[in-house]
Amino acid sequence: MKTAKLVFGIISIVLSVLVLFQSCAAGLVDAVEASGGTGGSAGLLVGLLMLSGGIVNIVTRKSKGGAIACVVMFGLAGLIGVTMYGIFTDLQIWGGYCALVAIINLASIFTQFKEKN
Asked: CB of 74 within 8 A of CB of 49?
């Protein structure tokens, strides 16, 4: 489970750059159209949560508290991504990825950190 958390942490950091770039473009389109959309702002939040969650996932992959923090960060990013996408429809995909990583971290709490008798 530690290796999977390391891999998903690295992937999350790399994908966060892509999400942040796409959210800037979506925010620019929202501003030009003056539609009052939330896709760019939601994408910025998802990208920052993915970046911070990926860093925490890598650094604290051996601790239970780090796994709980990752569940909260990736869960929040997934919720924002799936519900507030606006014109930025790719944000649903990134939100689904974040929800998947949150589920993996939740599973690691119960499997990786069992008390040994």
From this structure: yes
